[in-house]
Amino acid sequence: MSAFDKYLHAVIVRAMHEAHEDGSATIDAHHLLLSLSADQGSTAQQVLASGGLDRAAVRDALDREFEHSLSMVGVSPAAYDLPRPSHASQQPKMGASARLALERSFASARKKDLRSAHLLLGILQAQIGTVPRALALAGVDQAELADRVRQTLNSQDQ
């Protein structure tokens, strides 16, 4: 098992924990983003932090996206005492958005060259979904953040 394989496994395990805490049956791209933002010292975490996105900021953005989505169908979380998510009895499985993010990550470089920033780039390349909505609501320019990831990768390749 390569160093990147071990790293990817650790990211997915953290994402699985995030999904479990959310009461989600699937690991989605936003769980991967939370996992990367919590990975102290990684290039992905440093790029996110440079854009003002530490783990708490990512969690806040995702919470705002959830509230915004509810408000679009006429539900105000402030008006209801919504229960905390119940923890699923089974381990979360890989969801479609996470699989797509990983596929985009793997397509961006040869396996031996993959790093944490490639995972982040795969997440940021999504045009629709929870992550783009959360970043937009947080005032984060997703395209600019993706460009910053690409610049970081290019500078590391030299």
UniProtKB/TrEMBL annotation:
Could you give a GO molecular-function term held by this entry?
peptidase activity
Keywords, in A-Z order: Hydrolase, Protease
| Keyword Kinase on entry | no
Q: Which domain of life is it from?
A: Bacteria
Q: What is one Gene Ontology biological process annotated in the Swiss-Prot or TrEMBL record?
A: proteolysis
Any Pfam family from its record, for instance, is: Clp_N
Question: InterPro entries from the entry?
Answer: Clp_N_dom_sf, Clp_R_N
Kindly indicate whether the keyword Aminoacyl-tRNA synthetase belongs to this entry: no
Residues in domain Clp R?
A: 4-69
Q: What is this protein called?
A: Clp protease N-terminal domain-containing protein
Organism of derivation: Streptomyces caledonius
